[in-house]
Amino acid sequence: MGRSQETFRKKENIKKREQKKKDKELRKENRSSQSDKGKSLEDMLAYVDENGNLTTEKPAEFRKQKINVEEIQISTPKMVEEDDVHKGKVKYYNEQRGWGFINNEFGERVFFLIAEAPASIKVDDVVNFRTRKGPKGLQAYEIQVV
C-alpha cells in the first residue's frame, strides 16, 4: 500500500484557505448589515442650526429669521483712493541728478524728483508729501518743507 498523497503541509494550506473564505464571508455580512444603503431620505439628511452646527433634527420654523432680499448687496464696492498727506524725512538727495528718497512715518522709502520738490530741499528736512504709483513703486509729489 502506498502512502497518502495528502501531507501535513497540504492539510494546513487547505485549512488556511477555508479560514480565509469564512473571514471574507463574515466581513461581507458586516458590511451589508452596517450599510447606509436602503435608508430613507429623512435619515440621510443633516440640518444646520442657527449657530452653524450640523444636527439631525429639523430646525423649528419660529427660529428662522426673515431676510429681505433687496438688502443683500452683490456688487463689490469701489476702491477709494487714499490721497492723504504723509509726513517724512529726506534721507538721500542727489542735487546733480535731481532725485532722492524720503522715509515716511512707516519707515518706507519713497522716491521723489526735483521737479516735484521745492528748490530749497536738502537732506534731513522734514517734509509733507502725497504719494502715487510710479513705474517702479511709490513716488512722492507736492512736497512741502515743514
From TrEMBL:
<dbReference type="GO" id="GO:0003677">
    <property type="term" value="F:DNA binding"/>
</dbReference>
<feature type="compositionally biased region" description="Basic and acidic residues">
    <location>
        <begin position="1"/>
        <end position="11"/>
    </location>
</feature>
<feature type="region of interest" description="Disordered">
    <location>
        <begin position="1"/>
        <end position="43"/>
    </location>
</feature>
<dbReference type="Pfam" id="PF00313">
    <property type="entry name" value="CSD"/>
</dbReference>
<feature type="compositionally biased region" description="Basic and acidic residues">
    <location>
        <begin position="20"/>
        <end position="42"/>
    </location>
</feature>
<feature type="domain" description="CSD">
    <location>
        <begin position="85"/>
        <end position="145"/>
    </location>
</feature>
<dbReference type="InterPro" id="IPR011129">
    <property type="entry name" value="CSD"/>
</dbReference>
<keyword id="KW-0238">DNA-binding</keyword>
<dbReference type="InterPro" id="IPR002059">
    <property type="entry name" value="CSP_DNA-bd"/>
</dbReference>
<dbReference type="GO" id="GO:0005829">
    <property type="term" value="C:cytosol"/>
</dbReference>
<dbReference type="InterPro" id="IPR012340">
    <property type="entry name" value="NA-bd_OB-fold"/>
</dbReference>
<protein>
    <submittedName>
        <fullName>Cold-shock protein DNA-binding protein</fullName>
    </submittedName>
</protein>
